[in-house]
Write a structure and sequence with these properties.
Length: 191
């Protein structure tokens, strides 16, 4: 059994299918490329990681005391079955009873939109009353028209989900799109 850290500052978690760009988005948010480990191989992140951005480096972009929680991906991680089962137990234990968890960002690839595995997770969050928000990732890889289509389709889908935040944030960790909007959401929890 892997122990969770004691509760400290408010937490926001980054969930989503393997390889969707969770770790990259955390790195882009804090402006440190090597903080959260990223890779082309789905299944890079193999446990929960808690990053508390360093306030001492008070740049205009600095985030307030809030833990950014990087999670293993679901869907098709290239990892042994036993390992995936361990992550799954850990993730469920974390998501079920964490008072300090303010919101889960559910990351969705802007090229593909919501997949069944996302819907499954969202249904669980609806039942458990976990507040979540859809973040489209890798927007730099999609042309404006198909991006709009995915955005509209996703907005329609989340209307059926009780615990989903109605606003969708469109991001690119490579180009920096959407980072300010994401920071503004995170700052609102840290007060
Ligand atoms: P797991 O931990 O394996 O679940 O993956 P993850 O969701 O943390 O994804 P990760 O951040 O490791 O990124 C996966 C791949 O997508 C890497 O090769 C990244 O460089 C790439 N990537 C992530 N974000 C972006 C983005 O905004 N644009 C582009 N073009 N590539 C991205
Ligand atoms: Mg990762």
């Amino acid at each position: 059994m892997v122990a969770l850290p004691p509760e400290g500052p408010p937490e926001v978690a980054f969930a989503g299918r393997s390889n969707v760009g969770k770790s990259s988005l955390i790195n882009a948010l804090v402006g440190q490329s090597g903080l959260a480990r990223t890779s082309n191989t789905p299944g890079r992140t193999q446990s929960l990681f808690f990053y508390v951005p360093d306030l001492a480096s008070a740049s205009p972009d600095a985030l307030p005391p809030v833990a950014l929680v990087d999670m293993p991906g679901y869907g098709y991680a290239r990892a042994p079955k036993k390992t995936v089962e361990t992550w799954t137990r850990l993730i469920h234990a974390y998501l079920a009873g964490r008072a300090q968890l303010k919101r889960v960002f559910v990351l969705v690839d802007a090229r593909h939109g919501l997949k069944p595995a996302d819907e499954t997770l969202m249904n669980e969050f609806d039942r458990a009353g976990v507040s979540y928000q859809i973040v489209l990732t890798k927007a730099d890889k999609v042309k404006p028209a198909p991006l709009d289509e995915v955005r509209i389709r996703t907005a329609e889908a989340i209307r059926r989900h009780a615990a989903a935040h109605p606003e969708i944030i469109v991001t690119s960790s490579v180009k920096g799109d959407g980072l300010d909007a994401l920071r503004a959401e995170i700052v609102s929890f840290a007060r």
